[in-house]
Amino acid sequence: MDDKTASQTIFESRYASSPGEVKGMDTTQLRQNFLIDSLFVPNQFKWVLSFFDRYLTGGIMPIDGPVTLDTPDQLKASYFLERRELGIINVGGAGQVIADGTSYDLDYKEALYIGQGTQAIQFVSHDANAPAKFYLNSTPAHKNYPTRKVSRTDAEVVTLGSMETANHRTINKLLVNSVLPTCQLQMGMTELKAGSVWNTMPAHTHDRRMEVYFYFEVPEGQSVCHFMGQPQETRHIWMQNEQAVISPNWSIHSGSGTSNYTFIWGMAGENLDYGDMDFCAITDLK
Length: 286
Known about the structure:
There is one protein chain. The chain is mainly β. It contains two helices and 25 strands. It folds into two domains: 39-150, pectin degrading enzyme 5-keto 4- deoxyuronate isomerase, domain 1 (Jelly Rolls), CATH 2.60.120.520; 153-284, Jelly Rolls (Sandwich). The strands form five sheets. Strands 2-4-5-12-7-10-13 form a seven-stranded mixed sheet, with no helix packed on it. Strands 3-22-19-24-16-15-14 form a seven-stranded antiparallel sheet. Strands 1-6-11-8-9 form a five-stranded mixed sheet, with no helix packed on it. The relative contact order is 0.16. Catalyzes the isomerization of 5-dehydro-4-deoxy-D-glucuronate to 3-deoxy-D-glycero-2,5-hexodiulosonate.
């Protein structure tokens, strides 16, 4: 197959917002600042740069042969991962990622970590009629760690919640420091059981890290209401399938769906302590 470099990379920057600013935002402004409503454009990379920890959220859906990761001018780098690391989770058909000549097959819900300093990266779908959808998160990095694939069986798996509280869920820790070394990027996937609709409840914040949620496996005709803001000044954003939302360090990040669903969480910041959370009692939320 002929190599195809993305003819256009869609790149958008989002400024960091303070709690005071968010308190005065209407629905449109909240969505403009935090919602990422489309990530998978055929053969084109879509990136949203958040100024919270310079976190990049992106996606690529290769159709016509391999698509090469180019370097947006906004990064001012010789190549994309010159000063960054990259996490990938496939949420579509079977595909392959080629990193500096080494190929990694990724099936549905499998992950790949690519370390800082990797120069040539390509993405390809095995079947153009059932294309891969590579969900991408990238953060600044100071050191090279080995590129590694993480399958479902490699993940650290935790089951939490209960049917009685409608939050029975399985957390798959994929790209976290208990599984493999990274500079600051952490990614994983939470799957809600049938009949459960709440995620991340009781809610929490963590001033040391920001976070991005990507909701998928939301059934047709259903939605997820994502909650954000300070615990005593919450706001909400209605989310559809395959949409992402930026969560500032100072904000809760929780959701409730009209059906069960799955979401990918990605984090970056000052530490790699997954358990570093400042919890808020459910009865204290406002």
